[in-house]
Amino acid sequence: MTIVSVCMPVYNGMPYLKEQVESILIQLEANDELVISDDGSTDNGLAWIQSLHDSRIRILQGIPARNPSFNLEKALYAAKGEYILLADQDDVWLPGKVEHMINALQQYNLVVHDCSVTDEKLQVQVPSFFIMHRSGAGFVKNFIRNSYLGCCMGFKREVLTKALPFPKHIGMHDIWLGLVAALWFKTAFISEKLVLYRRHGNNASTTSDKSKLSLWQQLQLRLTLARQLSGTIFR
Asked: What mean pLDDT is reported for the chain?
């Protein structure tokens, strides 16, 4: 029986992929899995992953989604575990992350942990993402100003009964998953820093960056998000 599924969307992840995959696999048990959904990579990342010959790794390929959120969605649909942890391709998991998250998920349906923000060489630039973004639980708080960070998120499988499928015009998956869980389940932010969150200029996620959208554009996005969330009532 698969207990933990780590879901990682990948697109041209070298040269950072090796450090991340190794930091994850060392924490997984024999029956756990790392589900890697590739979005049409043209580098040698998949070849390296396949060379590991690790039975815990499952690689998903097919028609590229050309979108990191929908690429992740493929991995979520394929995941078999009771506990699902999200991973970016370019970070590094710190020792004890899986254990901490599974323990926290005994009390909550979705958990977000803190992390240290680093440069491309993993030199810490911001010791606490939570402090920088004033992160914390609460539906209204995160609807107004998102502090959910996908690569620091884990949840029980039941969250997917409300979160999938992703809306057709989704913003980013982290705010969607977080708000759905806050609306329907029990969520928590925990203070442990369990990931080195690498920023190198080509990241798919912009969560740690200041929004470049105008106030009007942000309002429109929130109105769309509100309509999308209302649709989960019927799931």
From this structure: 93
Question: What's the mean pLDDT in 68-85?
Answer: 97
* Cis? peptide before 64, omega within 30° of 0: no
**Measured on CA atoms in the order 224, 230, 234, 235, is the torsion positive or negative?**
positive
The DSSP H or E segment spanning 35 is strand 33-38
- H or E stretch at 48: helix 45-51
- Residues 34-47, mean pLDDT to the nearest whole number: 95
The amino acid occupying position 90 is D
Q: What is the residue extent of each domain of the chain?
A: 4-234
Q: In the numeric block, which tokens belong to residue 16?
A: 């950072």
| Helix ranges, the chain (H) | 17-25, 45-51, 68-78, 97-104, 129-133, 139-144, 160-163, 173-184, 215-230
Among candidate residues 227, 221, 211, the one with its CA nearest the CA of residue 147: 211
The CATH class that applies to domain 4-234 reads alpha beta
